[in-house]
Amino acid sequence: MTIFQVTLKNCAFYAHHGVFEQEKALGQRFFVDVVMDVEAGDALGSDDIEQTVHYGLVYELVEKIMTGSRRNLIETLANDVALGLTAWSPMIRRVEVAIRKPSAPIAGILDYVEVRVEHRN
User: Fold this and answer.
1) Burial class (CB in 10 A: 0-12, 13-18, 19+), 34
2) What residues form DSSP beta bridges with 117?
3) Cα→Cα distances 57→46, 60, 61, 85, 107, Å
4) pLDDT tens-digit readout, 73-110
5) Catalytic residue (one of 9, 24, 64, 101)
6) What are the Dihydroneopterin aldolase/epimerase domain coordinates in residue numbering (predicted)?
7) How many Cβ atoms sit within 10 Å of the Cβ of residue 56?
8) Domains along the chain?
């Protein structure tokens, strides 16, 4: 069995996730990385997009989850993205989702808070 990796890096979404009222009301930008180990099947030989994981559709699914229902925790959000992707395609053998929150309400200087979740099929 051949496995290849597909990565979507630094996808940006505006959403209203967070525990605090200000986060819920104002929203903020979130950045998402998705790394998928994909079972190759016939894709590498056939050169047919129907035989692989279409990363444009992956982006659309991530966007739907990120901008859909509001969550308090980015941990829950990352888990929902990972579960959504593995449920969507059995070709995805492993997925790692990282979500970065650059405007985390922390009294300190930092670039962002990041959470990573990994699921395997």
Assistant:
1) buried
2) 97
3) 20, 5, 6, 10, 38
4) 999 999 999 999 999 999 999 999 999 999 888 999 99
5) 101
6) 6-119
7) 8
8) 3-120 (3.30.1130.10)
